[in-house]
Amino acid sequence: MGVQVGLTVYAPTKAVADEACRAAFARVAQLEDAMSDYRPDSELMRLCAQAGGPPVPVSRDLFAVLSQGHDLAERSGGAFDVTVGPCAQLWRGARKSGRLPTDEEWQAVSRLVGWQKMHLDPDAQTVQLAEAGMRLDLGGIAKGYALDQALVALREHGVTRALAVAGGDIAVGDPPPGRKGWRIYVWQAAKGKRRLIVSNCGVSTSGDTEQFVEIDGQRYSHIIDPRCGLRYGEPILATVVAPDATTSDSLATACVVLGQEKGQRLANDVPGVAVYIRRAYTK
After folding, report:
1. pLDDT (mean) for 151-163
2. pTM (2 d.p.)
3. 3-state SS record for the chain
4. 161-166 and 118-121 beta bridge pairing
5. CA separation (Å) from 133 to 50, 176, 278?
6. Residues 6 or more apart whose Cβ sits within 8 Å of residue 56
7. Mean pLDDT score of the chain, rounded to an integer?
8. What Rg, from alpha-carbon coordinates, does the chain have?
9. Which of 210, 69, 233 is nearest to 138 (CA)?
10. How many whole angstroms separate alpha carbon 27 and alpha carbon 96?
């Protein structure tokens, strides 16, 4: 997934902590094997290799992530879309070469992008990608899901007081002993740094305040807008607190693509969600 995963746990003994953490890391590794778009033999890439063909049976985990991604794509008007893979591949090459893709290149990949082209059958647990050449990218949702599942693995081994982190995504369980919750700091517009006390939820931060590239004097975000390919202009930082990290991860990405006002409206429609958005963030 391109980031280190860390666990902080409170357990009755070191032996219990070690066993629980091993199980949690094993679960994360299992999900990376399934959902990575960098590994040609991952379950995700095997699914993409069958794009344009009949429905493909997939695992419970992959179907759950694709289902939630599909739902958010519909609610966000395509601002979050796991079918963005062809655009992501094209943009990765542009960032390395320092050359913007041509209009013809964008047009060639844009026909392969669109959440409506991914058909899910919950009864058969199958996924059909309508167009040959489609490619899925779970970079805005899989880390959150993996952290949620890490907490599940910890709980199954008797550890409920835990924090799991991967890049800008955090999942927390029960509070540390003697505390009301885990202390997490976020940036809030016009108010600066704010401390949150949270438990049993997900907290995700997404933005392009630090990760970006400049080409021909224009600043471009590393976060792609699935609707048009590129996102450029004023940098933005969005932090979302949600009932789980799968939701916070994907919503944070959608909020950055939509911008402050539309992102706020989208987040407000999801029960149990709070969003903190800051423009032009500087340290």
Report:
1. 98
2. 0.91
3. CCCCEEEEEECCCHHHHHHHHHHHHHHHHHHHHHHCCCCCCCHHHHHHCCCCCCCEECCHHHHHHHHHHHHHHHHCCCCCCHHHHHHHHHHHHHHHHCCCCCHHHHHHHHCCCCHHHEEEECCCCEEEECCCCCCCCCCCCHHHHHHHHHHHHHHHCCCCEEEEEECCEEEECCCCCCCCCEEEEEEECCCEEEEEEECCEEEEEEECCCCEEEECCEEEECCCCCCCCCCECCCEEEEEEECCHHHHHHHHHHHHHHCHHHHHHHHHCCCCCEEEEEECCCC
4. unpaired
5. 9, 47, 37
6. 47, 50, 126, 127, 128
7. 89
8. 19
9. 69
10. 32
Q: How far apart are CA 130 and CA 114, in angstroms?
A: 10
* Vertex 76 angle, CA 73 and 82, to 5°: 25
Amino acid (one-letter) located at 25: F
pLDDT, one tens digit per residue, over 175-227 is: 999 999 999 988 766 566 789 999 999 999 987 645 556 666 665 556 778 88
Structure tokens at 258: 């939509």
Nearest to 267 by CA among 279, 256, 282: 256
Share of the chain above pLDDT 70, in %: 88
Q: Are 62 and 33 in contact (CB under 8 A)?
A: no
Query: C-alpha distances in angstroms, 85 versus 5, 194, 223, 282?
Result: 24, 35, 12, 30
CA triplet 236, 163, 16: central angle to 5 degrees? Answer: 160
Residue 174, number of CB atoms within 10 A of its CB: 17
CB 139 within 8 A of CB 83: no
Q: What does the alpha-carbon distance between residue 156 and residue 5 come to, in Å, rounded to a whole number?
A: 19
Report residue 102: phi and psi, to 5°. -75, 165
Q: At what angle do helices 14-35 and 142-156 cross, to 10 degrees?
A: 150
Is there a contact between 166 and 147 (Cβ–Cβ < 8 Å)? Answer: yes
